Amino acid sequence: MAVQINPSILSADFARLAEEAKAVEGADWLHVDVMDNHFVPNLTLGVPVVESLARATDTPLDCHLMIEDADRWAPQYVEAGASSVTFHVEAAGAPVRLAREIRAKGARASMALKPATPIEPYEDLLPELDMLLIMTVEPGFGGQAFLDIMLPKIRRTRELIGKHGLQLWLQVDGGVSASTIERCADAGADVFVAGSAVYGAQDPAEAVRALRAQAETATARASWACGH
């Protein structure tokens, strides 16, 4: 399982998004947080900005939709240029149908769970997905402290992925930094969203490299990764 680092532009300078995207060109994906001030108490950016950002960078866009009525809006982000689209299961009326629609349009389909949402009821949905996102903070704002109580949930999710023999990426988002990324990797995550830990650093590209090295070291010795 290859470690992937996805800097979150929620922590970038919105007035310089094209430059901020170039500052992390060594990253695997650029994580784009879309918030509607309804599903979460914050308002960020939408389809037009994603379209512009997709033209401004060669780094693929990983769009995380923290919005209501995901069934209606998620496909539009694929059309806008996102290579991966994450919808929240709490906001989706028909998650299987939505995941299939996202895939049919040519993007990777991902489903996100808030901290209080258990993974077990959605076990049968996992084969329909390319990635699962475990939120390690309450969605809505960057810069929050990592919730250690999410580590057992990450472990349980990794066990379910292994149980079904799936090539499913397991992403974590919220409070991921040099002090928490190794714990996430040890628990089973292989895709890491980092906001202030990257864009708050003096050299964002170096921060990406350092986080990747930490995660790779932790993954190499993690029990779940043995045999992969």
From TrEMBL:
Pathways involved: Carbohydrate degradation
Keywords for the protein's UniProt record, in alphabetical order: Carbohydrate metabolism, Isomerase, Metal-binding
EC number: 5.1.3.1
Cofactor: a divalent metal cation; Fe(2+); Co(2+); Mn(2+)
Residues binding a divalent metal cation, per UniProt: H31, D33, H64, D173
Top-level division of the source organism's lineage: Bacteria
InterPro entries for the chain: Aldolase_TIM (IPR013785), Ribul_P_3_epim (IPR026019), Ribul_P_3_epim-like (IPR000056), RibuloseP-bd_barrel (IPR011060)
Enzyme active site: D33, D173
One of the Pfam families matching this protein, by short name: Ribul_P_3_epim
One GO MF term: D-ribulose-phosphate 3-epimerase activity
Major enzyme class: isomerase
Comment on bound cofactor: Binds 1 divalent metal cation per subunit.
Residues involved in substrate binding: S8, H64, G140, F141, G142, G143, D173, G174, G175, G195, S196
Catalytic activity: D-ribulose 5-phosphate = D-xylulose 5-phosphate
Task performed by this protein: Catalyzes the reversible epimerization of D-ribulose 5-phosphate to D-xylulose 5-phosphate.
Family per similarity comment: Belongs to the ribulose-phosphate 3-epimerase family.
UniProt-recorded name of the protein: Ribulose-phosphate 3-epimerase
